[in-house]
Amino acid sequence: MSTLAIFLSQFALSVLVVSLLARWYIWPWVNNQSFNNAVLPLLFPHAIRHLGLVFLVPGLVNQPLPNYFASWAAYGDLASGLLAIVAMFAVRNSWRTAIPILWVFSIVGISDLLNALSKAEVVPDLGTTWYIPTFWVPILLVTHVLIVLKLWGEGKSAHAGDTA
Prior knowledge:
The chain is mostly helical. α1 (about 5-30) runs parallel beside α5 (about 130-164) and α2 (about 35-45) packs antiparallel against α5. It is built from five helices and no strands. Helices cover about 75% and strands about 0% of the residues. It has one domain (about 5-164).
């Protein structure tokens, strides 16, 4: 089996397992919570996205990763993690700007993940950072989807209240 086939298999299976966990256990819990109580725990995995800076560390990858991947992935993760922390404070303290901050975080975070995943040619050189896209990224993707679903649900609730 080729390196890329192994990577894609691991990634797909991780997405499947995390999606099942989300569907069977996390989403039912999320639906029974207030918006703030539901979203806050979903932000925690993102708050440690500074782990992506590891793509810039020499010796942890087989060779220096191309700058178009390493810098974008590392700093995109850092930005997403910092936005997640800001969003955590916004949600926890019920800031009026919490919803817009969550949308910005979601757009930046999802874009960062999709951009990194589109660079499959770097897979053979990931070295010890392999665990990030095959284990951590599926968790991040699924929690992003759950956050966006809650945001859409919150937006629909707000608009339903406008028409009443």
